[in-house]
Amino acid sequence: MTQRLVSVWQPFFLSKAGQDAAIDAAIELEELGYSRIWFSGGFGENVHPRFREILDGTKRIGVATGIVSIWHSSPAEVAVFAQDAQHDHPGRFLLGLGASHAVLVENDGTDYRKPYSKMVAYLDGLDAAGLPAEARILAALGPRMLELSRDRSTGAHPYFTTAEHTAEARAALGPDRLLAPEVAVVVDANPETARATARQYTAGYLTLPNYTNNLRRFGWTDDDFAGGGSDRLVDALIPWGTPEKVAAGLEKHYQAGADEVAIQVLNGGDARSFPAGAFRTLAGILI
């Protein structure tokens, strides 16, 4: 990959803010020059209709699921959605798939076992349904899932990772696969308030073994995970500060091998409010 892409990852698009507000925000991001909008596929049986609504309401910007849970939707149904979206909007929809987390899956009564094998079987199902590898991307953290991303998809969409992980992911994927990490940021130059906002986000993720086990591979410890994260870990995960400092933090991921960075602007956990000002400012620096 040679093209450098700047994208958006924002829970707002699947919040209760409403379809019209979501489309208006997507149109502005498109006009600002962002490449793609990522947001969670939720935990329903099918791909959420909001992805199609945004595709239908915009002209150029890409839309990606970040992610559809392989425990909650069938390959056949997901393949139909993706094929229809690609037919009507060629080159604009990307299906992101992930194995989610045991605590979330088992809340629905599903037995969370062998997520790697589950993903392999799911990809087999997509193959059988005629959805090609280049139409999908995997939420990959560890070496095995990164290798699966390389071999059976267009690439990897890591979430809640550091630039060091981005470098490892690029090495695992090789030069020709898309690497599009999500990176959360806080546009706030005050260290105390910026880190407090970041910890509202990190605290929940640091209870999930998939993420903490991945961070342990890079030398982070239980002391770093306590209390929503040590200052050192928060600073490594969440670029914060002036817009220019945030942009420098995102640059570390590009330098580590990312083709695309999906920016999530943290705004105190208010998913129904779209941080338009921050995305306007960052677009002026990054795009």
Question: What does this molecule look like?
Answer:
This protein is an alpha/beta fold. Helices cover 47% and strands 15% of the residues. It has 13 helices and eleven strands.
| CATH architecture level-2 label | Alpha-Beta Barrel
Write down the Rg. Answer: 18 Å
Question: Tally of extended strands?
Answer: 11
Q: Which stretches of 5+ consecutive residues score pLDDT under 50?
A: none
The succession of helices and strands, N to C, reads: EHEHEEHEHHEHEHEEHHHHEHEH
- Approximately how much helix is present in the residues? 40-55%
Oligomeric composition of the shown chains? single chain
Number of domains: 1
Put simply, the count of helices is 13
**First-last Cα distance:** 18 Å
What structural class do the secondary elements suggest?
alpha/beta
The CATH top-level class label: Alpha Beta
Shape, per Cα inertia axes:
globular
**Biggest sheet, in brief?**
9 strands, parallel
> Which percent range describes the beta-strand content?
5-15%
Q: What's the mean pLDDT score?
A: 94
Report the CATH topology name.
TIM Barrel
CATH superfamily membership: Luciferase-like domain
